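ok posting inputs for the NAI job
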Amino acid sequence: MFADKVALITGARRGIGLATARLLAEAGAKVVLVNRPDEADGEAPLAAIAEELGRGCAAITADVSDSAQVAALYRSVHQRFGRLDILVNNAGILGDARLGMIADEMIQRVMATNLFSVITNIQAASKLMRRGGGGAIVSVASIIGLRGNAGQVVYGAAKAGIVGATLSAAKELAADGIRVNAVAPGFIQTDMIRHLPAAIAAERVAAIPLGRAGTAEEVAEAIVFLASAKARYITGQVLGVDGGMVL
Ligand code: NAI
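and the output
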């Protein structure tokens, strides 16, 4: 389904980003895996993942919260592939703190990583997509950006911002044949939630009508659907992938 398509995924080293990369590569896309450089927790190097995914996939190390690195990233994609068909804005970090404990530095870091990067990537990706006659952009928001959560004011604001950016970009880019959508995952078993105390994790699961946390693959399936031609008449939507948690 994605033969000859080039797909860029941010935060692709693990979790939802890696699961999405695997599905897109299996479906024939050339995947550009992007991740920041500084993690030393025993995960496979990005280049090794690209090699495992197969011919045509590439690894580019970049911190997407830095707009100069984002600009260099797209120059590199342009030189190497000459086109871009799909962007998945997945990179994100948590920034949990009660209001009294939120420092400016945290606001800046979480906003730069979770929201600023989405806008700069949409800007750069849409230029390449326009030249190629169209494309699809899917950003990973969160149920917290729709419903809120105590202790997640900054994260929730950034994720709500992704929803706003998605709606406006969908209107602005439709004439160029570029669809822009988002997914809003609920509670998904990845490294991001690994450090949550068991009692809080149990509380979250208890709030999910389907009775369990989701998997990275289940979110990836929704992202791939929105990126695919099966979703060719869908733009400006935020698809919940949350086992009914939003209800
Ligand atoms: P994860 O922590 O397992 O993976 C995130 C990846 O993004 C990591 O490989 C990390 O190194 C990379 N990354 C972080 N900052 C980056 C930067 N500045 N530049 C480049 N790469 C960067 O997390 P997970 O769970 O796979 O999350 C993926 C997305 O899904 C995030 O945007 C997250 O906010 C969102 N999400 C996750 C939920 C969950 O329950 N796990 C629920 C709702 C949304």
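notes: Residues 209 and 244 are 5 Å apart (CA to CA). Helices lie at 15-26, 46-53, 67-81, 104-132, 144-147, 153-173, 198-206, 216-227.
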